[in-house]
Design brief:
It contains twelve helices and no strands.
């Protein structure tokens, strides 16, 4: 829970230091905000402070990063927040569907609803990781991207997965399992980019090196 609470700090600190959002995926952080707030509601609903406290802080940190990206790239913040709001509403409807059926919180219907919620609420975040992975592959400049953030995100997912096996939290078990696998792949892609196995499209199409300066 503590690691989850500070998960976005490496990326947030890097943006404050560099004032440069190059290589940072706006879509990823929009989805982090939506899913973070959805998990906050779920944690409050099932009475699990270890779930809702860190996710609330994660959602707020993600919101700060979205604001910085919008400011740097001159994008409308209100329009940018429409997507996180949609993610939040849809996720809550799924998580509480068993109530519409008149089922009890400890029923099989509730467990199924929470499991579906755990996967669906993480679909946006998984798409966000895929979007960040795409940026890692395609962007020529990654100085705004924090690999420390991705590493922490991956570690936290594995910790949540282990916790869910002992606590019986079906939503966490499904969601964390999927995210752990995907973030592991993202880190592998970053390593391959750093060692030169993967090169951005711009690099592969760049002209051959010359002795003198290139003239536009």
């Amino acid at each position: 829970a503590v690691l989850g609470a500070v998960l976005a700090l490496p990326q947030l600190i890097k943006l404050f230091k560099t004032r440069d959002t190059a290589g940072v995926s706006l879509l990823n952080w929009q989805l982090v905000v939506g899913s973070g707030l959805a998990w906050t509601w779920h944690g409050i609903d099932v009475g699990q402070p270890p779930v809702w406290v860190p996710n609330l802080l994660m959602g707020l940190s993600g919101l700060a990063i979205v604001w910085m990206i919008c400011t740097h790239r001159r994008i409308s913040l209100p329009k940018t927040l429409i997507m996180p709001a949609g993610v939040l509403v849809v996720s809550l409807l799924i998580d509480n569907f068993y109530r519409f059926l008149g089922a009890a919180p400890d029923s099989a219907q509730a467990t199924l609803a929470h499991s579906v919620f755990g996967f669906v609420v993480n679909i946006p975040q998984m798409i966000g990781v895929l979007a960040q992975m795409r940026s890692i592959i395609r962007e020529p400049d990654l100085k705004g991207f924090s690999i420390a953030y991705m590493g922490m995100l991956c570690s936290v997912q594995y910790l949540w997965l282990i916790w869910s096996l002992f606590s019986g939290e079906s939503a966490i078990r499904v969601g964390a399992g999927a995210m752990a696998a995907l973030t592991t792949v993202a880190i592998i892609v970053y390593v391959l980019r750093q060692i030169g196995v993967i090169k951005p499209k711009q690099d592969t199409e760049a002209p051959a090196a010359q002795d003198g300066p290139l003239v536009p």
